[in-house]
Amino acid sequence: MSSAVAKDASTVMLLRDGTSGIEVFLQRRVKGMAFAGGVTVFPGGGVDPADGTADIAWAGPSPAWWAERFATTEPTAQALVAAAVRETFEECGVLLAGPTADTVVSDSSVYRQARGQLERRELSLAQFLAKEGLVLRADLLRPWSNWITPLAEPRRYDTRFFVAVLPEGQRADGETSEAAQVLWRTPADAINSWTSGVDILMPPTWSQLDSLAAFADTAAVLASEREIAPIMPTYRPGDAGRPLSDFPDNERYFAMLPGGGILGPR
């Protein structure tokens, strides 16, 4: 039986500096969703065909630069960055765009109607930016990692993870049909909530939180240079309690996993 093709997807770890260090925006997905229902994740989703349009007003590293970082083609790289900006706006109301190449909107709530149109696919990101005279700020994003769903899964994604800092004046919210709860947490607190059985963290989310916990502030995150190699865990159904391997620190993940090391819904 052939494996499902992995769909390109973008996920954004939205950060801010808090009193106890870096905080990251997380959302607990609505239970019953086809993919990762009830799981705590970062904002993100699949690339839409319209994300790859060539006429997006763009500021920052070129698609060629992103293509090199994520080991892909320029059109795919452009679509991934556009999807990262679109999904962040759709899912938490944060807009990484501005009137000029060196500014960013301070109040994204004025685009509430367009946000709904984007989510319903009545409007493309390129159309929205052109209509409002906005420039996509690719320089506000940084590439972080690349995870691919195991071959055995029926629904697969080739997900590129980005980091971005919450623009001054903007607010991340929970006004999306996909999230049952949203909150800001330090990476350590998010992992502690998982180990106590309150939240469910799949390996990619846990891994990103674990990596962010090493940084003192958002400036250090943005200044870091990441070597990005694709990570595709291997699924072994016969391995009781530890069915996934071939991802960084997989033994530590399962050792910390609540419920006796069993991976699955709780």
TrEMBL record:
Residues 5-208 form the Nudix hydrolase domain. One of its GO terms (molecular function) is metal ion binding. Its cofactor is Mg(2+); Mn(2+). InterPro entries: NUDIX_hydrolase-like_dom_sf (IPR015797), NUDIX_hydrolase_dom (IPR000086), NUDT19 (IPR039121). Keywords: Hydrolase, Magnesium, Manganese, Metal-binding. Transmembrane segments: none annotated. CDD domains: NUDIX_AcylCoAdiphos_Nudt19 (cd18870). This is NUDIX hydrolase. It comes from Nocardia camponoti.
